[in-house]
Design a protein that fits this description.
The complex is a heterodimer of chains A (about 325) and B (about 500). Chain A is mainly α and about 325 residues long. Chain A is about 75% helix and about 0% strand. The N terminus and C terminus of chain A are likely disordered. With about 500 residues, chain B is an alpha/beta fold. In chain B, about 35% of the residues lie in helices and about 25% in strands. Chain B is built from 18 helices and 22 strands. A 6-stranded mixed β-sheet of chain B has the order 6-7-8-3-9-10, sandwiched between helices. A 6-stranded mixed β-sheet of chain B has the order 16-19-20-13-21-22, with helices on both faces. The two termini of chain B are about 45 Å apart. The chains are: A mainly alpha (about 325), B alpha/beta (about 500).
Chain lengths: ~325, ~500
């Protein structure tokens, strides 16, 4: 029977050497693995580059630069837990930023309205994605690949080469910094999102439903979970987050760039998978996702400090991703 | 003359099941032989072994007196044994001709497929069957009946000696069935031996020369169709030795909980009605494809209903999705536990909590503590054998998985619990426990609607038996005193004879 199995397993495990046990322990929790890696990397860099890495200005730059990906990871993690994803986030980001720029810069409307319009445009893009996936039933890969090019094209149609400058009042939304650490608002916005999102996804019963959907959509449906409605909501959240990231990005530069966010979707998905999401769904946490973002940001920073050109970044990030996912083979708690 | 096909002492084991046990039969050239049996009697398995789809564990197979060693699909094809599968084996995106000559297309210069020759040959083959289908058409554009003809043509494309048809009429309308029969008769006239796997008695009487009946994997008898009767065949199909005892407890049957009337959910549910009272176990019996599961899904909201009414506790409901059914107090344990029932990658706690997320929460927060307590209760109550409530459900045995699935629905405390095939893939020990659980639920006043293809199970559980056939509820029996024969007679009544069925109003064409 089943009961005897764990006993045999412990006996077997006792024979394994220390190294394997450590690997297993780490592999059991992706968050723990990443946390250890992030801390180790940060320590190593502090020792190797004491004059470049652990400085306030470098930290500020790292944290500010990871803000947009960090915001997007919250939404992408939710979607991937539910067994789906959104490739159009980069285009949504640019489209939202450009609309905020148009409303504030060209039409001269108040900055608050521009921010709201940007987020609404993002949410609308997400709604369209969600409707295509759930109502028409087109696979998320194809659907959001389609809207990726559509939204980007609409961005060009809307604003040509972009809106520069926008207005000072609008720029303040992306430039305001706290008095203590002097980090600008996109980072704080991301931090708040991660904290609230992390709590929502980990603890609330509403978001718990996404784990069931990702685990087995048919069983979730037959358990009375409104699968389509929730996936639709997930896409709207994803779109709104991309909208927010786009608006804050445009505000920080005081310029709505039509090429903003090109290729960011792959970075976001990399961080999400690194953070413990599976393409099959049902797994992952926001905490893991944000640790994934942090880890990639540190690696990029190391390479910049090291002056190893940007060409090598992709190689390292790719290898780390493959390594992290292959750790799953050592998992003890997974399905046999 | 030696028989075309001779089978001696054939046995086949699947994990935990003896699907075929020492079966022997022989079929002459040009004979149409029916293989008859209940769901799970082993008739499809036998057909698939002869066609080389499954390997045999014991026994010999002789074709035209020559003993066949290893028999795989390729060897069977080379021997002239063809099979038309229940589910179909054609590639819908390819043309009729390409499907017929899959892997053996006539070629020309540099190995190019000679499309014209291939189409000509395909056309000729189909013409032999007395039908006309354009060989350039894609299979996806064909009707189910035409697809079946193409499958036969595919078998015919090699020198066909034995043709196995595995429940070919399941998806066909009556006129299509007649057409298929003409084709089969024509083939038999040309000397092909046909093994016709079916559980529809009517078809056997109108098509076959002889019939071999299987019962629980064993040979129950072979008869000439002209010399047998429906009654005799039904007697051969049933009468097993395994009987689960009925509970003697005098249960208090209460008010009507479910009242469904004239429910229509095309194409499989045409007009089905049922009532279930509190504390009562009603079993829905019938052959596979009779629309039982689909009827239940329509009640629960998992399938769109086109007509009829559903009342729960006297209040009419119109469930648009499973959430509405759940809201009305209905639970449904689906037939396919792995695909539709459980979250195999999740632990017992989460599986049990899936239907009662609000009950295991404090405010908006999911409470792991409450969920664990709930799961622990069920593990104790249902005696689920597991090292902990955090065990991944995919690692449990079939019987324990089934108990987790029941727990998931018992957790929501339904007024009506629908259980579709409560013991499929569950060993005998866990079976009687599941029966005990279902009875205990009924004793607590839950109305139970159980779908089962297992007649001993139906007879052991049911207070009342409602029989479905061809999408209609066709009869009702009292649970105690009912016999398997009575149930089967009702279940096959609608197919008693093709001609007779045709006279039924509304039964003509779907």
């Amino acid at each position: 029977m089943q009961i005897t199995q764990p006993l045999a397993e412990t006996a077997e495990r006792r024979r394994e050497n220390l190294f394997v046990r450590i690997v297993r322990r780490l592999a059991d929790s992706r968050e723990l693995t990443l946390f250890v890696l992030v801390v180790a990397l940060a320590l190593a860099m502090s020792i190797v580059y004491p004059n470049n890495f652990p400085t306030a200005s470098n930290m500020r730059a790292v944290l500010l630069n990871l803000a947009p990906v960090g915001m997007l990871v919250c939404g992408m993690m939710l979607l991937m837990i539910g067994g789906t994803f959104d490739l159009s986030v980069g285009s949504t980001l640019a489209f939202s930023g450009v609309w905020a720029g148009v409303v504030a810069g060209w039409w001269g409307w108040p900055a608050e309205i521009a921010v709201l319009v940007g987020i609404m445009v993002g949410a609308l893009c997400g709604l369209v994605n969600g409707l295509i996936v759930t109502r028409i039933g087109i696979n998320a890969l194809i659907a959001t690949l389609g809207t990726l090019t559509i939204y980007r094209s609409l961005t060009y149609v809307t604003a040509g080469t972009g809106v520069t400058p926008i207005t000072d009042a609008f720029a303040e939304y992306g430039r305001a910094a706290d008095p203590l650490f002097r980090i600008q608002s996109p980072f704080w916005a991301m931090l708040v999102l991660v904290l609230i999102g992390g709590w929502l996804v980990a603890r609330t019963r509403f978001f718990r439903q996404f784990y069931f959907i990702g685990g087995n959509p048919r069983a979730a449906q037959l358990s009375g979970i409104r699968v389509d409605r929730l996936i639709l909501i997930g896409f709207v959240i994803m779109g709104a987050l991309a909208g927010l990231a786009g608006v804050l990005g445009a505000a920080r530069l005081n310029s709505a760039v039509v090429n903003a966010g090109v290729g960011i979707e792959l970075k976001v998905i990399t961080a999400t998978v690194l953070g413990g999401a599976s393409l099959k769904g049902g797994e992952g946490t926001i905490l893991g996702g944000i640790l994934g973002v942090l880890f990639i940001a540190l690696i990029e920073n190391a390479m910049i400090i090291n002056a190893i050109g940007v060409f090598w970044q992709g190689l390292v990030v790719g290898l780390v991703l493959l390594f992290a996912v292959s750790l799953d083979r050592f998992k003890t708690s997974g399905r046999a | 003359m030696a028989p075309r096909l001779e089978i001696n002492g054939l046995s086949k084991f699947f994990p935990g099941v003896r699907a075929l046990d020492d079966v022997s039969m022989s079929v002459e050239a040009g004979e149409i032989r029916a293989l008859l049996g209940e769901n799970g009697a082993g008739k499809s398995t036998l057909g698939k072994i002869v066609a080389g789809v499954y390997s045999r564990d014991q026994g010999t197979v002789l074709v035209d007196s020559a003993e066949i060693g290893t028999l795989d699909e390729k060897a069977a094809g080379d021997l002239g044994i063809g099979i038309v599968h229940q589910e179909g084996s054609l590639v819908p995106q390819l043309s009729v001709a390409e499907n017929i000559f899959a892997g053996r297309q006539p070629t020309q210069w540099l190995g190019q497929v000679n499309v014209r020759a291939m189409r000509e040959q395909a056309k000729a083959l189909i013409a032999q069957l007395g039908v006309a289908i354009d060989p350039a058409l894609k299979v996806s554009a064909l009707s189910p009946a035409q697809a079946q003809i193409v499958e036969i043509a595919k078998a015919l494309s090699r020198d066909l000696r034995i043709l196995i048809l595995d429940e070919p009429t399941a998806a066909l309308t009556l006129t299509e069935t007649e057409k298929l029969f003409d084709v089969v008769r024509r083939l038999a006239g040309n000397g092909v031996s046909v093994v016709y796997v079916s559980h529809r008695l009517a078809e056997i009487f109108s098509l076959c020369h002889s019939v071999t009946v299987l019962k629980d994997g064993r040979l129950a008898g072979t008869r000439r169709v002209a010399e047998t009767s429906t009654d005799e065949l039904i007697r051969l199909m049933v009468g097993r030795d395994v009987h689960f005892s009925r509970s003697a407890a005098g249960r208090r049957i209460g008010d009507i909980v479910l009242e469904a009337q004239d429910v229509e959910a095309p194409p499989l549910v045409r007009s089905a009605s049922i009532t279930v009272r509190a504390g009562e176990i009603v079993c829905l019996a019938g052959l596979i494809g009779s629309g039982r599961s689909e009827f239940c899904e329509a009640i629960f909201g998992a399938r769109r209903r086109h007509g009829g009414s559903i009342r729960i506790g006297g209040t009419a409901i119109d469930p648009k999705g499973p959430w509405d059914g759940k809201h009305a107090g209905i639970g449904m344990v689906p037939e396919d536990r792995k695909a539709a029932g459980l979250f195999l990658g999740m632990d017992i706690v989460n599986n049990v909590a899936a239907t009662v997320l609000s009950r295991v929460s404090s405010g908006a927060n999911f409470s792991n503590r409450k969920a664990e307590a709930l799961a622990r209760n069920f593990v104790d109550e249902l005696r689920i054998a597991t090292p902990s409530v955090h065990q991944i459900v995919g690692n449990l045995s079939g019987g324990n998985q089934q108990k987790v699935l029941l727990a998931k629905w018992m957790a929501m405390e339904p007024r009506l619990l629908i259980v579709d095939e409560p013991t499929r893939g569950v060993d005998v020990g866990a079976r009687s426990e599941i029966y005990r659980l279902l009875r205990a639920l009924a004793d607590k006043g839950v109305a139970l609607l159980v779908v089962s293809s297992d007649l001993p199970e139906v007879l052991a559980l049911a207070d009342r038996i409602v029989v479905m056939a061809e999408g209609r509820t066709v009869g009702e029996l009292r649970g105690d005193g009912a016999s398997e024969e009575q149930v089967l007679r009702l279940a096959t009544r609608y197919t008693a004879s093709v001609a007779e069925v045709r006279k039924q109003p509304g039964m003509a064409e779907a």
